[in-house]
Amino acid sequence: MLSRQSTRSFSVSMSGTSQGRASAAVAQSKEKSTGKKEKLDLKPPKGTRDFYPEDMRMRNWLFGHWKDVARLHGFEEYDAPVLESEELYIRKAGEEVTQQLYNFEDKGERRVSLRPEMTPSLARMVMARGKSLTLPVKWFSIPQCWRYERMTRGRRREHYQWNMDIWGVPGIEAEAELLSAIVTFFKRVGITSQDVGIKVNSRAVLSEVLTAMGVPADKFAATCVLVDKLEKVKLDDIRGEMQELGLTDEIITKLVATLSIKDLDALEQTLGNGSKALAQLKQLMEYAEAYGFRDWLIFDASVVRGLAYYTGVVFEGFDRKGELRAICGGGRYDELLATFGGEPLPAVGFGFGDAVIAELLKDRNLLPNFDNNKEDKKMKWAFKHAERLGASHLVIIGEDEIAKGIVQVKNLAKGEQVEVEVSKVSDFIAEQLASS
Ligand code: HAM
């Protein structure tokens, strides 16, 4: 039953919001004075979504692919509370995410926050288990995250974010495995490397340049956070902040020149062939070649990402038409546990939101039909999708087939469709493939 009587209210203060919204108590007194019930606002809070059954079908379809891909790569699922202690997110590098917290004081006067991202919770969990964890840890999760964002296409105040993280692997093979998972997901839903690319860089590139120019290590994270802003603002808008960090005009000029590098040969000229950052990036490209997803990757020295804790390779998925915000992003964060007072432990991972990918799939007409009443359209989509994937066979299971314990197998090259017993499907298809 829907009840408008909110039993108790508590005040919520969020950075960046105007205070003093009409409270439930004020609404109630209005009601009394006019004697009329005001109609309930039927929209969910700004930037949040309701999920009706058809929306849940879409969400479960997407999460199903994410979970399958994660398990295929040997990752185990974990979860954490959506409400965390605020201090988990207090970082001093000026990141946007820490200014967008849904934070407040609870009834026990504790400062708490809805999580804006999963990585700090994961770090807390890994740290709590400490040495009893068997490394490497390969875990995934699909948390709902909350950020008080300015709303744009694909950016909301809550979103679900597929996370995959690997702890305890210092080598670049961990990055390669994560990128493989991302590409595997894209391919499964029909997205190609013509639709989407993944920009790759390493923060070690900037770190080497800045260290050589005498910038102290403790200014590095804040410099990266500022550099990330250059995607949206002009250099002159943040020059003052850079100077406050101690970056001279000479350093800023060198920094900007480095950011414009778009190929590894040019990077070699800047860093020299003894550079560790360069060696890592070359190795990553070799792994990508061996995995078969090299065509998805683009080296781009301007990608540093906006979170303070990244220390090494960083990457970001983008639509090649340039119409949408970042599709996913991640990187290496070997020092995060140390910032929480623990022993450092190598870690790398990514977050992949549900909002931008939904826009992209809609734009490319790649979403299945989630309306239960239109079977025909659903079937047409299944045939089109199988064709797009270059599948040899399509297996069709409906209610009649389930009742009979069979499936329909369509050979897409020959256009022939036959009934096959469920237990014999794989042998049947294998035979057909062998004889074709
Ligand atoms: P992030 O770049 O802040 O990274 O977010 C990762 C992804 O989450 C974005 O690329 C986007 O798909 C989605 N996302 C973020 N904010 C919003 C929003 N307001 N609305 C819709 N989607 C959004 C992180 O959060 C890191 N913790 C990821 C990570 C995990 N790094 C290592 N492990």
Bound compounds, please?
Answer: histidyl-adenosine monophosphate
Please indicate the percent range of residues in DSSP E strands (runs of 2 or more).
15-25%
The top-level CATH class of the largest domain is: Alpha Beta
Weakly predicted, low-confidence segments: 1-23
What's the helix and strand layout?
Blueprint: H1 24-34, H2 53-72, E1 76-77, E2 83-85, H3 96-99, E3 103-105, E4 111-114, H4 119-129, E5 137-141, E6 144-146, E7 158-167, H5 173-188, E8 196-202, H6 203-212, H7 220-229, H8 235-244, H9 249-259, H10 264-271, H11 276-291, E9 297-299, E10 313-319, E11 328-332, H12 336-339, E12 347-353, H13 354-363, H14 375-389, E13 393-396, H15 399-404, E14 406-411, E15 416-421, H16 425-435
Parallel strand pairs: 1-5, 8-9
Antiparallel strand pairs: 2-4, 3-4, 5-7, 6-7, 7-12, 8-10, 10-11, 11-12, 13-14, 14-15
Helix pairs in contact: 2-5, 5-11, 6-9
Region (Disordered): 1-48
Keywords: Aminoacyl-tRNA synthetase, ATP-binding, Ligase, Nucleotide-binding, Protein biosynthesis
GO molecular function, one term: histidine-tRNA ligase activity
Walk me through this protein's architecture.
This is histidine--tRNA ligase. This protein is α+β, with helices and mostly antiparallel strands. The protein folds into two domains: about 300 residues, BirA Bifunctional Protein, domain 2 (2-Layer Sandwich); about 60 residues, Rossmann fold (3-Layer(aba) Sandwich), CATH 3.40.50. The chain contains 16 helices and 15 strands. Strands 1, 5, 6, 7, 8, 9, 10, 11 and 12 form a nine-stranded mixed β-sheet that branches. A three-stranded antiparallel β-sheet has the order 2-4-3, with no helix packed on it. Strand 14 and strand 15 form a beta hairpin. Helix 5 runs parallel beside helix 11 and helix 6 packs antiparallel against helix 9. The longest helix is centred in the first third of the chain and has 20 residues. It is globular, with a radius of gyration of 25 Å. The relative contact order is 0.11. Bound molecules: histidyl-adenosine monophosphate. The site of histidyl-adenosine monophosphate has 25 residues, from strand 7, strand 11, strand 12 and helix 13.
